[in-house]
Amino acid sequence: MKKNYLSTSARFLGAVGVLAAFAGLVSAQQYPTRPVRLIVPFAPGGIFDFIGRLVSPKLSEGLGQTVVVDNRAGGGGVIAMQLTANATPDGYTVLLADPSLVINLHLQANAPYALKDLAPVTGLTTASLVLAVNAKVPAKTVKELIELSAKTSLNYGSAGVGSTPHMAGELFKFRTKAEITHVPFKGVGPAVTAVVANQVQMVFGSLAGTDGFIKDGRLRGLATTGEKRAKAMPDLPTLAEAGVPGAETAVWGAILVPAATPKPIINRLHAEFRKALADPEVRASLDKAAIEPLGTSPEEAAAFISKEYEKWGRVIKAAGIKPE
Length: 324
What we know:
The chain contains eleven helices and eleven strands. The chain has helices at 2-30, 47-63, 78-85, 100-107, 142-149, 164-176, 188-196, 207-215, 263-278, 280-288, 298-319, and strands at 36-40, 67-71, 93-97, 118-126, 129-134, 154-158, 180-184, 202-206, 219-224, 253-258, 292-293.
């Protein structure tokens, strides 16, 4: 009797599992049936808000449902990432993450999310930074800047502790042993303004945010931080070309969803984001902002994010930045 009971129970549980899987498949096939929320970890007006609002209308067309941009600023992105990690894994909560996704995990002793809580959909965009100095700084090349740092005090501005420009500066120090001091500001815009005013001498700034100052001669661009030359500043060498290999830094954007989101929904979202990136209007707007579209597969995005996590962990440890 006991054997029959266990056998019957196993068959029942198996049937329940099949029914649950079937229900999940049907739900994924019907997806979406209501508006989708695209969470941006920063306030309106920033680069990732721009990207989110640029692609959301195209996503709405492709999905047949409204895609609403939901700005959840705070905690250097932590609030948005925790919100997504804890959301129902049904495809209706989607996160547009930046490098703070992985950097925060090294800077916060008790971060309220982990990478395993989120599933990558696609690597969406990437952009280089530019190493720029005040025009009065005598260094004309990266090599001269490194040499100058050993002779005089040099400060670099950033968008704040843990920001990508800050990490770019720490990675540069790690690779070159340059003697430069970090000065955090409330945003990369104020940091660039401080360099223009010669309050600090250098910055790893956005291409779009420094281009005008470089063209009018108030800043001097020395190199860009990507793996290849930036289309917006093709005359500037990469850091590797300037003699600093291994200092590549990208301001990347990636799309993630809660970890248990069904694979068919992830695949649907991936396809729609790729279509949005292929739109000529979207590409033209990204190009104008010196941002490159990606559209990588979920597997490629996962591998890249894992690599970024390891890289910034090493840099943060070498810089002696302690988790708070």
